[in-house]
Amino acid sequence: MSVDLEIRDGAAILTINNPPLNLISAEVRAGLLRGMQHAVAQGATRLIITGAGKTFVAGADAKEFGQPPVAPHLNDVLLHLAQLPIPTIAAINGVALGGGLEIALACRARIAAPVAQLGLPEVSLGLVPGAGGTQRLPRLVGIKAALDMIVNGKAVMAAKGLALGLVDQLADDPLAAALTYDSAGQVPDLRPAPLADDAAVAAMQVHAARRLTGHIAPPVAIDLVAASATLPLAAALLRERAAFLDLRASEQARALRHVFFAERAAGNKGRDYPKPARDIASAIVVGGGNMGAAIAYALATAGIAVTVVERDAEAAGRAEDNLRALVDQGVSRGTLSVAKGEAIQRRLVAVVGYGNLPPADLAIEAAFEDFEVKRAIFAELESVLSPETILATNTSYLDVNRLADHLKYPSRFVGLHFFSPAHIMKLLEIVKGDRTSGETLGAGFALARRLGKIPVLSGVCDGFIGNRILTRNRKAANRLLAEGALPNQIDAAMQGFGMAMGPFAAQDMSGLDIAYANLKRQNLAANAQHVPLVERLVEDHKRLGRKTGAGWYDYATDGKPVASDLVAAEIRKVAAKLALTQHSFTAEDIVQRITLAMIAEACAILDEGIAEKPQDIDLVLVHGYGFPRWRGGLMHHADSLGLPDLVARYAAWAKADPINWAVPPLLSRLAADGLTLDSLNAAKDQA
User: 464 near 458, Cβ under 8 Å?
Assistant: First the structure.
């Protein structure tokens, strides 16, 4: 049974017992309804609902969201709960999220353990609470607090819930407290409507438009919460349920579910490799610049003692300043307490050279992207560290196998590609070299879990998964410039599609010198189809992006980008040199050209075995490159376009321009068999 019933001292105790997270399934819903009926029939004086183990209820089973609803529905079960003729108490022993919190809201009192977290995160799955959350929560905490919890999907700790009025009492043993709780005066679901708060509603509408662009669920949630002040409860609950069912069937909800399950699969990927013999307790980071300092800070925040190595005293001093600035920033923003900041600072030390390094479980280089520099670093590290120390490179592009060639123990060498800023960005590409051992990969995945990262396994190629696709993105964008588009038009089109930044604004942010160095390393100038714009801007005009006040854009004193006449003139010169006729593009044309170029490269990455599954590519693009989460990632987006239509589009372009376009063989095979890219995920999971 998923719900256990016990009668104790006249109280009926319903324990939701669906390990490990007590998710709400059809069986749980039926068990709750059955338990309530039995409790009343047996003359119980009160009803207590709690969870087995350390969790109250972590939410609905998301696997059911892609299927037709199965009775009894949670909203009907909770309507019955709210109208029971006996006092009802939620004994919240742990996490209460989504439908779990809605169960608690339908009770007339809530007693929570101090460790309990309470939240309604449905918006993150493209939904709104569908069993009373948008109506019962504001009746307890008011419009403003309810909007914050529902629209932002924020969970609160039990103590905060007590202060808000969401929780009635804190207790180390909520069930014991519920058995003696004074329930006098409890009546069925007749709470008064909250006071209207037009200012809070308007502020949240502005916030959602700015921070949750493209998401369709937040505006619906705002309207539902606002309506709790004016609509009768029964009518508002019906409206909420209709909105929930409508959103549940939407393409956006399917896309967000896809990312959710991909993230869960990534978190479990470490199980494919041997469990590390010990946790990483100490680490060395070579290089204390922006990237190295951020990696060191992320490691120290996870409780790891970190030694940062620099080449001289001046550089070590700058590294210490960078580390201290990150700690101070965390404290000033409220993400760290002063005490925690001081503890992190104690775990960070910068030293000069390799002469007196302490023993370490892990050593990561975060030096300049130069093969010989990195190879020299690993030679030094291997000479002074134990053979058991894992050696890792943070390279963005370089060949991990070549870097391992001169190591005595290449089996303990791995790529750990962090994304900037490393202490904030969730993605970690774990790059498997030809000689990387399973034990080393297991340690890499364990580290990712400890750091709270989304780990994606990649094979070895130039740029791995993400930067290889990014290179194709920029190539397509540069080609569009030569054919008549302008940087601001392309950036606006891609932002309209949902990207966090357009390709040219992003390149100005990272620096054109980085793009220029990669072009030189790859010797792309030898390719007749190469569009030599970056070289002109860097070599002829010293335009490196925001750092010099000029890149693809000119930058005013306020830092805002302005379209550049000089860049437009350079684009016209390059187009003439390449004998290209310039013409206008619609935003749809631009988006299609760039996204289909990325999809083609991603298909090649899959065919070559660099990425294991399409969903891995989706995670890389969403968490590393600002691809809109609500589109499900690049490969899910490709499926949504329809593979037969995609193949036809590639074929038409290949006929008109066979040098730059071809039909990706993977898409041809899948379309011919009536399959999708997502079917490759399912096949791999089953294997």
Answer: yes
* C-beta separation of 650 from 596 below 8 A: yes
Asked if the structure places residue 172 within a domain, the reply is yes
Q: What is the pLDDT of residue 189?
A: 65
Range of the domain at 286: 278-458
Q: Does residue 67 carry a pLDDT above 90?
A: no
Q: What is the pLDDT of residues 73-105, one digit of tens each?
A: 999 999 999 999 999 999 999 999 999 999 999
pLDDT tens for residues 225-271? 999 999 999 999 999 999 999 999 999 999 999 999 999 999 999 99
Gap between the Cα atoms of 202 and 566, Å rounded:
42
CATH no. for residue 554? 1.10.1040.50
Which of 212, 229, 249 terminates a domain? The answer is 249
Tokens of 246: 């409508």
Q: Is residue 341, in this structure, part of any structural domain at all?
A: yes
Residue 69's CATH number: 3.90.226.10
Q: Is 2 helix (H, G, I), strand (E, B) or coil?
A: coil
CA dist., res. 374 & res. 478, Å (int) = 31
Q: Tell me if 256 is assigned to some domain.
A: no
Query: Taking a C-beta distance cutoff of 8 angstroms, is the pair 527, 451 a contact?
Result: no
| 290 and 392 together in one domain | yes
Domain count, the chain: 3
Q: 436 with 293, same domain?
A: yes
Residue 125 has pLDDT above 90, yes or no: yes
Nearest to residue 259, comparing CAs of 446, 445, 126?
A: 126
The first and second tokens of residue 455, run together, are 């780990």
CB-based burial label for 498 (10 Å; 0-12, 13-18, 19+):
middle
Secondary element (H or E) of residue 520: helix 512-522
Give the tokens for residue 43.
Answer: 């003359």
For residue 525, the model assigns a pLDDT of: 61
For 305-319, the three-class secondary structure string (H helix, E strand, C coil) is: EEEEEECCHHHHHHH
Return contacts of 683-686, CB within 8 angstroms, 24+ apart: 684/612, 684/613, 685/265
Nearest partner of 341 among 352, 354, 323, 328, judged by Cα = 328
| Cα separation, 521 vs 517, whole angstroms | 6
